[in-house]
TrEMBL record:
Recorded superkingdom: Bacteria
Organism from which the protein derives: Paenibacillus thalictri
Pfam family, one: HTH_18
Molecular-function GO terms, alphabetical: DNA-binding transcription factor activity; sequence-specific DNA binding
Protein name: AraC family transcriptional regulator
Assigned keywords, A-Z: DNA-binding, Transcription, Transcription regulation
InterPro entries: AraC-bd, Homeodomain-like_sf, HTH-like, HTH_AraC, RmlC-like_jellyroll, Tscrpt_reg_AraC-type_HTH
Keyword Transcription regulation: yes
Residue intervals of the HTH araC/xylS-type domain: 179-277
C-alpha cells in the first residue's frame, strides 16, 4: 500500500467524476453471485455483517471496513442472514490530468490504475459516513453549484480517508516503539534501566512514553520492569541454591534489603518465606 503522502500525491493528479451515489439496506437473503466488476466503486459498510470475496480472497464486510472495486475484479458478495449489512456506495470514473513543468499530462484510467483497491480498515468511520451521507443528499439535487459542492465533498472524503490511514500509521509506529522498549526490558532487566533511558529509546518524552506504555501494556514502565525482575527472582528462589544477595544482583538490585522490600510488596511474603513455601530452603547470606 502507498504511504499517505504518496496516496495524496497520486489522487491529486486525478480528475474524478461521480456516476452514482446511494445507500443500501440489504435483505436477510441478499447475495450477489460471482461477477466481474465493470465500474470503479467504493462501498462503506456501516451496519451488519457479511462476507465479500475479491479475486478468490475472502474479506469480512462489517462496520469499519471500506472496499474499493475496480473493473476486471471478480467479486462475490453476501450478507449474514441474522445481521444484514447496510452500506453507502459511490460509483465513479476518472482520468489522470495534471501539469508538470508547464506541460499538461493526460492519461486515461486504463493507463493509470486507481491507487486503492480491495478492503481497508478505518479508525474514524463516523466522519466518512457523514461525508458519504452528504454526498448522497447532494446527488439527489441538481445545479452547477451543487455539482461543484459534490466535487469538494468528494475531495474531502478522500482527504479524510488519507488522514485516517496516516493516523493508523502513526499509531502503529508508536505501538512498535513501545513494544521495542518492552522487548528490551525483557532482555536487559538485570541492567540499571531508567524511565528516561527507555523513553529516549522510544523517541518520546517521559510523560508521553509513560502514558502510552500504560495504555498499551497495562502497567507503567517501572511496574512492568519490577514484575519482570520479581518473576525471575521467584524462579531463582525455587530452582536454585543461590544466596539472597546473589539473586538480588542477578535481577537488577544491588541492595538485597531493597530487593526484599520490593519482593514482599509484590508477593505478600519475603524472599526467604517464598523459597521455603515453594521448594527449597534459602541459604543464609
Amino acid at each position: 500500500m502507498l504511504t499517505p503522502g504518496e496516496l495524496a500525491s497520486y489522487l491529486n493528479k486525478l480528475v474524478i467524476s461521480i456516476l452514482l451515489v446511494g445507500h443500501q439496506k440489504t435483505e436477510a437473503d441478499w447475495h450477489q453471485s460471482t461477477r466481474k466488476i465493470k465500474h470503479h466503486s467504493v462501498w462503506l459498510i456501516i451496519k451488519g455483517k457479511g462476507s465479500f470475496t475479491i479475486n478468490g480472497t475472502h474479506y469480512p464486510a462489517e462496520p469499519g471496513k471500506i472496499f474499493f472495486f475496480s473493473p476486471g475484479m471478480v467479486v462475490e458478495r453476501g450478507t449474514d442472514p441474522d445481521n444484514p449489512i447496510e452500506y453507502y456506495f459511490l460509483r465513479f470514473h476518472y482520468t489522470e490530468t495534471y501539469e508538470e513543468k508547464e506541460q499538461w499530462i493526460h492519461r486515461p484510467a486504463c493507463d493509470c490504475p486507481f491507487p486503492l483497491d480491495g478492503m481497508y480498515t478505518l479508525l474514524n468511520t463516523p466522519q466518512l459516513i457523514y461525508l458519504m451521507e452528504q454526498l448522497e443528499i447532494l446527488w439527489k439535487r441538481r445545479g452547477h453549484m451543487t455539482a461543484m459542492r459534490r466535487k469538494i465533498l468528494l475531495q474531502e472524503f478522500f482527504l479524510a480517508l488519507i488522514s485516517d490511514f496516516r493516523a493508523q500509521k502513526m499509531a502503529g509506529a508508536t505501538t512498535s516503539a513501545i513494544e521495542l522498549t518492552q522487548d528490551y526490558m525483557v532482555g536487559h532487566y538485570k541492567e540499571p534501566l531508567t524511565l528516561e533511558g527507555l523513553a529516549a529509546m522510544a523517541g518520546l518524552s517521559v510523560s508521553h512514553y509513560s502514558r502510552l506504555f500504560k495504555k498499551f501494556i497495562g502497567y507503567s514502565p517501572i511496574d512492568y520492569l519490577t514484575h519482570l525482575r520479581v518473576d525471575r527472582a521467584k524462579e531463582l528462589l525455587v530452582l536454585s541454591d543461590y544466596r539472597l544477595k546473589s539473586i538480588a544482583g542477578s535481577v537488577g538490585y544491588s541492595d538485597e534489603f531493597y530487593f526484599s522490600r520490593i519482593f514482599k510488596k509484590m508477593t505478600g511474603m519475603s524472599p526467604r518465606d517464598y523459597a521455603k513455601k515453594h521448594r527449597y530452603s534459602l541459604p543464609t547470606s
